[in-house]
Amino acid sequence: MHNFTFFNKTRIVFGRNTIASLMDLTQPYHKILMVYGGGSIKRNGIYARVQDALQGKTVLEFGGILPNPEYEFCMRTVEICIQENVDFILSVGGGSVLDAVKFVASAVRYKGEDPWDILEKGAPVSEALPIGCVLTLPATGSEMNMNAVISRQEKGQKLAFSSSEVLPVFSILDPETTFSLSPHQTGNGVVDAFVHVMEQYLTYPVNSPVQDRFAEGILLTLIEEGPKVMKTPDDYDVRANIMWCSTMALNHLIGSGVVQDWTTHMIGHELTARFGLDHARTLAVVLPAVMRHQMKQKREKLIQYGERVWNLAGNEDAIDSAILKTRAFFEQMGLPTTLGDYHISVPECYGIGRILVERNGKIGERRDIGQSEVDAILKLAASV
Length: 384
Known about the structure:
By secondary structure, the chain is of the alpha/beta class. 46% of the residues lie in helices and 12% in strands. The strands form two sheets. Strands 1-8-5-4-2-3 form a six-stranded parallel beta sheet, sandwiched between helices. Helix 8 runs antiparallel to helix 9 (236-249), helix 10 (263-275) packs across helix 11 and helix 14 packs across helix 15.
């Protein structure tokens, strides 16, 4: 196991009726900006519950954050924070809203000329406004991690940054807030969490049995609970298990002391930027292709994954079956697994490998995936 430092300050408040704890959780703050998405929280009652819980506080609001939060929209939120002297931002929504809030919190306190440098140039985030979260769509793990992804349409970019300064002070996880999610959103969330685990797990062994077993436990739970939630979306226990899986999948715990990949995410971000596909749907397309392309490099972990997660024989002959079972699970959750399913051809993807290498150098856990390898992965992703 490699050396590591693990730090996570986020207080998790999990369970039914936990939105009522907002007053106590926000006690140190005086002017709160509540940020949310397209308005579903007003239809399903979550907006009213949050407002009731914050009665007596000065609460401003800013809605309209879309999936793949856009830089220009975020900067409008930054202006409000500065003009109104906001001292706390509350995200009410899914990972996209919280990603936007993390960037806004960083940009408000950024001392440089252009906050986009945080994403494009890796400018450090030395301080940020404190933030909190009421989670309504489990998927990204953003409620307990230091990561965020922001798009900039004018540049055709979708970029990520990470800083401990944007770890939420608290995150409220009430599984009942997820009952109104559509099958489309629910399937996306399960697959997103699954691939987060795989990016940290499916690399090569570094003698980290605790991390491996944690990761396999999350994968097994998602495989068990995912189909259940599609059939019984109002089952509290199922929703609770999926919500906690999504948080544990990317709160830096299972990734501590191990090598990580993130090739699937990097390619997926480019597919989203170019074609507008949902983030999780790009992952469902790319991961099986990465698994197949990297069979030799990931051989030991692929065998372990097949044996422990899919109950296959513990040998090389089971690798193909493990990849097929992964694809079948994604499709069971309602996510297609080829570019062809979205009527996207390989020539339309030309240039993605070049962009990734220019920005990051070679990628993957071994830093051996360059432009030609990305092209080969996209060819494998084109069809069954």
